[in-house]
Amino acid sequence: MAGSVKARGATSLPDLFPAGRPFIKMHGLRNHFVIVDARAQAYRPGIGEIRRICDVQSGVGADQLVVVEPPQDRSADVFMRLYNVDGREVEACGNATRCVAWLLLEEARLDEVSIETRAGVLRCQRAGSRLVRCEMGRVNLDWRRIPLAREADTLHLDVGHGPLSDGVALNIGNPHVVYFVDDLGSIDIPKHAAPIQQDPMFPAGVNVGVAELVDESHLELTVYERGVGLTMACGSGACVAAFAARARGLTPAARIDVQLPGGTVQIEIRPDDTAVMTGPVEFCFSGNL
Fold it and tell me: Which contiguous run of DSSP H or E holds residue 252?
């Protein structure tokens, strides 16, 4: 059979599947990313291409497409561009930051790198074997910075749905609202978080976190993300949930373990309101788009 195909001059497999742009797939607590290195060759995918790549049925499959570019800020090593599965570019992602930081740390054999994002320059350090610590920046409660459509008490936000009420609105480069509940497992999060995301109070959309404080140094969290929906983990969401628990007086702890569906990260809230996240990363595979 092979002989007859060759005799007919059929197209070879390399011709059918030419080498495309290389990518690496990684995950942080089962939050999956397709990472493309565009430092030497620019890459600006369209919305359709982003959706196709992130679609597990038609592409590689991921929660976000991450593009690593040359830095615009001289203090940074790279610029990290983030695209959600709906094609929207977003400002920040803690799990993606850890994954990209680990790749850079391994590439340069360093213990610290700086990653520029739309949310600012984030310093990241090696914290163990496939364990990365990231300084995620200051958490902000100013309604204009979140942003909200109008002035409101961000520590007790009067926007909710069903059992989700009395939220805390915050920004850590991207917008979040966190709701504390007594029994996280009893909440139908998509049912109640989706209407909150669409509320006109959030002109840029919002990531909705639902948290249960287990004890003063441990909380459980699930996040319904903009353009994604339910996720296994959200690093920026873990940072703001820990901050919100302290700001509301629910705990005095400066270090809080945040358990997400995909695993646990440790969040430190420093006196200057900076959040520092430490968590694992995993390499999945590499290939060509």
Answer: none
Residues 65 and 83 sit within 8 Å (Cβ to Cβ):
yes
Query: Do residues 34 and 144 share a domain?
Result: no
Asked if residues 95 and 233 have their Cβ atoms less than 8 Å apart, the reply is: yes
Q: Cα–Cα distance between 161 and 194 in angstroms, integer?
A: 9
**Could you tell me the pTM of the whole model?**
0.88
List, in order, residues 6 or more apart from 17 with CB less than 8 Å away: none
Q: Annotated active-site positions, please?
A: 93, 234
Angle at which helices 94-108 and 235-247 cross, to 10°: 120
Whether 248 maps to a domain, the answer reads: yes
Query: The domain containing residue 213 runs over which residues?
Result: 138-278
Q: pLDDT tens across 82-133, in order?
A: 999 999 999 889 999 999 999 999 999 999 999 999 989 999 999 999 999 9
* Pairwise CA distance, residues 162 & 195, whole Å: 10
